[in-house]
């Protein structure tokens, strides 16, 4: 065990697409502008600089996505420190091939 340096679990965008069929919490940590430009329907926009304000149910599993996977990994680490079970989506929206919607 690595103590504080726990690896962030991650999944691919295709794995995420399969999991979207079930109820889940998906946080999009991109800027509101990027989010409005196109996001996954179930995604809730919580920009990385506001991730510390996230207040979800502590026993829910949280999935985090951004544009490439870097910001979401950073957000996932912060959420893990806050006690959430977090999974990062590798490759982010740049790898996403499923449906997206624009606007809020």
Describe this structure in words.
- The chain is of the alpha/beta class.
- It has one domain: Oxidized Rhodanese, domain 1.
- The protein contains 4 helices and 5 strands; from the N terminus they run E-H-E-H-E-E-H-E-H.
- It has helices at about 15-20, 30-35, 70-80, 90-95; strands spanning about 10, 25-30, 45, 60-65, 85-90.
- It has a 5-stranded parallel β-sheet.
- The termini are far apart.
- The model has no long low-confidence stretch (mean pLDDT about 90).
Keywords:
104 residues, alpha/beta, Oxidized Rhodanese, domain 1, 4 helices, 5 strands
Question: What is the strand and helix layout of this fold?
Answer:
Blueprint: E1 10-11, H1 13-19, E2 25-28, H2 32-36, E3 43-45, E4 61-65, H3 70-81, E5 85-89, H4 92-95
Parallel strand pairs: 1-5, 2-3, 2-4, 4-5
Quick summary of this structure?
By secondary structure, the protein is of the alpha/beta class. It has one domain: Rhodanese-like domain (Oxidized Rhodanese, domain 1, 3-Layer(aba) Sandwich), CATH 3.40.250.10. It contains four helices and five strands.
């Amino acid at each position: 065990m690595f103590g504080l340096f726990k690896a962030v679990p991650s999944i691919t965008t295709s794995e995420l697409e399969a999991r979207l069929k079930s109820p889940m919490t998906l946080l999009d940590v991109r800027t509101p502008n990027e989010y409005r430009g196109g996001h996954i329907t179930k995604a809730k926009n919580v920009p990385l600089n506001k991730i510390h304000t996230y207040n979800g149910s502590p026993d829910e599993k949280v999935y985090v996505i951004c544009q490439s996977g870097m910001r979401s990994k950073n957000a996932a680490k912060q959420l893990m420190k806050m006690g959430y079970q977090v999974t990062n989506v590798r490759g982010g929206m740049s790898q996403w091939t499923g449906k997206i919607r624009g606007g809020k």
